[in-house]
Amino acid sequence: MVMRPYQIAATEKILQRLNVSTNARTWGKHEGGGYIWHTTGSGKTLTSFKTARLASRLPDVDKVFFVVDRKDLDYQTMKEYDRFEKGAANSNGSTAVLTKQINDDNARIIITTNQSKIPPRRLY
Known about the structure:
By secondary structure, this protein is mostly helical. Helix content is 44%, strand content 10%.
């Protein structure tokens, strides 16, 4: 797969924002976030895959979560990610599986829906 110039630019901007938010300690704050808009059929899934793959290799990134709003989109995204690179991402069908993936150091990219509930953990 070859990315189009605007996909490359979007990926670069996201990775740049990750680096800036890490260095400036703005993660989790408004100034540490951002949006990338793509139109229908413009390759959003490929852009997200490549960005997630590169971000997952950054030293300050433990996991990349790709959160979708519907179960069918979860399935579709996982299918496409597997087409790009088999086994690069992890999907789940339950909160229990999601919890295991969060604790698994090998699960670097996780695709999930916003309906999954992560149980609260105690911070010590």
